[in-house]
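Notebook entry, structure prediction.
Reason for the run: the old model in the group folder had no record of what sequence produced it. Starting over properly, with the input documented here first.
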Amino acid sequence: MIRLDLAYARTAHAAAAVWPLPWRLLITASVTQRTGTFNPVERLRAALCRAAPQAAVRIDRDTGTGRPVVRAVYGDASPLVAGWDGAAYRVRLATLSPWRPLPVDPDAAAEEIAKDLREGSTYRQRNGAT
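New structure, fully documented this time:
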């Protein structure tokens, strides 16, 4: 425990001499907020939560590649898996169908995924999954 003598610490120089360096760094780090950008999968997840607020959406790892993907489920429909391949978004019906390309814009991609979630079994028929 550090005891700070108020009479001694009236100047900034004296206060800096009393506080050890790690505590000053800790206080500075605790007030700083995250200012970095979100990755494409996080942007897609946020856009999908806005486009289909009733769907259960989470970020998970693809079992084949290990890349982060978004899994979305709505009602009794089969889950949709959407991911970023480095150039564009893509979506598929769990592991039953091939990847289908989506627009590069996360909001436009989320709108298509939300439409597919609402249609449910129509997506399965359209993409050839059984």
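Summary: The chain has two domains: 1-36, 40-126.
The old model has been moved to the deprecated folder.
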